Amino acid sequence: MATIYREIAVEIAAADAWAALRDPADVARVFAGVLTEARMDGELRWVTFADGTVVEERVIAVDDAHLRLAYSVGGGRFEHHHSTLQVVADTPARCRVIWISDFKPDERANVVEMLVDAGCAALQRNLARH
């Protein structure tokens, strides 16, 4: 199983970063530039990427106690996919967002890594404006 692990430093209080990330329906605003739209129906979310690709995701958990969001990608693109985004406070005005994606098949690593890296840049840019 492939794993992609990223830590994104953000000049924003952890509580403010979590307020922006905790709403799964608002993901297109947080990841603007990579995502153009998000639509929720229950625990299912469809996100539209800038290139027009639509991906179905299942929101697994919104954990306010641990500032952690967990989701999986469905729709047959992966044998398995599970990701988490967790906010960790560093100082009162700075935090890190830890993004971990575990998936199969391993051959999708290049595509997933490219999307995660673009998402990291968008998240850092957009949260700094929050």
TrEMBL record:
Organism domain of life: Bacteria
InterPro entries in UniProt: Polyketide_cyclase/dehydratase (IPR019587), START-like_dom_sf (IPR023393)
Protein name, per record: Uncharacterized protein
Organism (species): Paraburkholderia atlantica
